[in-house]
TrEMBL record:
<dbReference type="InterPro" id="IPR017853">
    <property type="entry name" value="GH"/>
</dbReference>
<protein>
    <recommendedName>
        <fullName>Cellulase (Glycosyl hydrolase family 5)</fullName>
    </recommendedName>
</protein>
Length: 340
C-alpha cells in the first residue's frame, strides 16, 4: 500500500511545472501591484459570492478605485459552500466578476481553502460586523465543519476545469495559510490533496500555496516543494521582510509573488516595502482595498469596542467614497505602477 501511495505521489509531482517553465511564464508577466479584494459591502467570502448578496455594482466601483492608481492584480477568496449550494450560479458569478475585473485591466488570483478566522459558517444571510473587530465575520474553508473530501475534490476540479484556460486569471492559490488557527499539521492532508486535485486538472495557470510561517516546517517545506511559483505573506518590517526573501525564497530559483503584506502599525507599509518589491520584480499584493464590512482598518488583536476609527488604519487604502486614507500612499502606488 505504501508503495502505491509513493508511486501515485511521484506521478502527481510530475505535473508540477519545471523551474524553466515557471521562469519562462513569469518572464511574460508584467510587474504590478494589487490587493486582497473583498467588496466593501461583503463581510466574508459567502456574502461576496452568494446570489442574494453578490454586488457587481460595488465590485465595479471598488475595482475602479484600484485601477485609478494603476493596480493590475487582485487576490480573491472563493468558498466551497457558495459552490455547493448553487454550482452553476456560483460559476456564473465568477464569470461576472472576471468580466468586471478585465474591464479594469485587472488579473485575478483565486484562493480555494483558508485556515483563518471563524471556523464555522452557514449559507444564507451572514452576520453583521462586530464593531471595531478585525475580520469579525471572515470564515475558514472548510474549518471544523465536517465536509466530505470527495465534495471538496469535486469543487476544486469543477472550478479549475471551468477556468483552466482563462487568461484573466494569473494563478490559483490552493490554500491560504494552512496550519493557522492552531491547526498545525492537521492541515497537511487537505494541503496534499488539493495539490493532487490541481495536478489532475493541470490548468494553464500556475498552482501555488503561499508560505507564511516558517515555524510550521513540514507545511512550509511541502508548499515550497510543490508550488509552481513561490507565493508568500509577510507583515514584518522591511529589514525582516527582505531577509526572508533573500535567505529562503530566492535560493529556490523560482518566480516570487507577495500575496499579502502591508500592516501599518507593524511597520509594514507601502513606502518601505513596495519600491523594493518593484525593484526585484516581485508582484506586490497588499491586504485590503476599500474599508468596509471586513473591518480590516482595525488591527488583528487591537479591537476598538465603540467602532470608532483607529488613529492609524491597519489595512485598506480607500474610504467608500473613493477618498484615499493617505493621499501620499496612493500617489506612491500610482507613481510605481504607472510612472505618473
Amino acid at each position: 500500500m505504501l508503495l502505491l501511495v509513493l508511486v501515485a505521489s511521484l506521478k502527481a509531482s510530475a505535473q508540477k511545472w519545471t523551474k524553466e517553465k515557471a521562469n519562462a511564464w513569469y518572464s511574460k508577466v508584467a510587474w504590478g501591484a494589487g490587493a486582497d479584494f473583498l467588496p466593501a459591502t461583503a463581510i466574508n467570502q459567502l456574502e461576496m459570492w452568494q446570489k442574494e448578496s453578490f454586488d457587481p455594482a460595488t465590485i465595479n466601483r471598488d475595482l475602479g478605485y484600484a485601477a485609478g492608481i494603476g493596480m493590475t492584480y487582485m487576490r480573491v477568496y472563493l468558498h466551497h459552500l457558495a459552490w455547493e449550494t448553487d454550482k452553476e450560479g456560483f460559476k456564473d458569478r465568477m464569470k461576472q466578476y472576471l468580466a468586471i475585473a478585465d474591464k479594469h485591466k485587472i488579473k485575478t488570483i483565486f484562493v480555494f481553502f483558508d485556515d483563518c478566522w471563524n471556523d464555522t459558517y452557514k449559507a444564507g444571510t451572514q452576520p453583521a460586523p462586530k464593531p471595531g473587530i478585525h475580520n469579525s465575520g471572515w470564515v475558514q474553508d472548510p474549518g471544523v465543519v465536517q465536509v466530505d473530501h470527495a465534495l471538496l475534490e469535486a469543487y476544486v476540479k469543477d472550478i479549475l476545469t471551468t477556468f483552466k484556460k482563462d487568461k484573466r486569471i494569473l494563478l490559483w492559490d490552493l490554500y491560504n495559510e494552512p496550519g493557522n488557527s492552531k491547526y498545525g499539521n492537521k492541515s497537511m492532508p487537505l494541503l496534499q490533496k488539493v495539490f493532487s486535485w490541481g495536478w489532475a486538472v493541470r490548468p494553464d495557470q500556475p498552482l501555488s500555496a503561499g508560505v507564511w510561517k516558517f515555524d510550521l516546517k513540514e507545511l512550509s517545506q511541502y508548499q515550497l516543494d510543490n508550488s509552481d511559483v513561490i507565493t508568500y505573506h509577510d507583515y514584518q518590517t522591511d529589514k525582516k521582510h527582505f531577509k526572508v526573501i533573500d535567505s529562503i525564497l530566492v535560493p529556490r530559483g523560482l518566480p516570487i509573488i507577495c500575496t499579502e503584506y502591508m500592516a501599518r502599525t507593524n511597520d509594514s507599509r507601502f513606502e518601505n516595502i513596495l519600491p523594493e518589491l518593484k525593484k526585484r520584480k516581485i508582484i506586490a499584493i497588499n491586504w485590503g482595498l476599500v474599508a468596509g464590512k471586513s473591518n480590516t482598518i482595525y488591527a488583528w488583536n487591537t479591537p476598538i469596542k465603540d467602532g470608532s476609527e483607529p488613529p492609524v488604519w491597519f489595512h485598506d487604502i480607500f474610504r467608500q467614497d473613493g477618498t484615499p486614507y493617505k493621499p501620499e500612499e496612493t500617489a506612491l502606488i500610482k507613481s510605481l505602477t504607472t510612472g505618473k
